[in-house]
């Protein structure tokens, strides 16, 4: 939950959907690992988080942006 919160506070979110909520939230932990939370689940407010693999191009974008903010 803390990673999700820190991603929101740093503005590491995708453009909001029509309901005003972002589809994605990104964050980086204290060990330099990048994570992505994606909307989906039983309710529209559910997010599922996972670590971004080194082969995922989004990982580099998240790490770079995180350092800037």
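^ Assign residues to that structure.
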């Amino acid at each position: 939950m803390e990673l999700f919160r820190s991603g929101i506070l740093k503005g590491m979110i995708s453009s909001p959907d029509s309901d005003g909520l972002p589809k994605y939230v990104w964050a980086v932990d204290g060990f330099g690992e990048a994570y992505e939370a994606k909307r989906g689940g039983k309710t529209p407010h559910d997010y599922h988080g996972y670590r971004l693999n080194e082969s995922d191009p989004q990982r580099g974008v998240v790490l770079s942006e995180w350092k800037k903010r």
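The helical segments are 2-9, 57-68.
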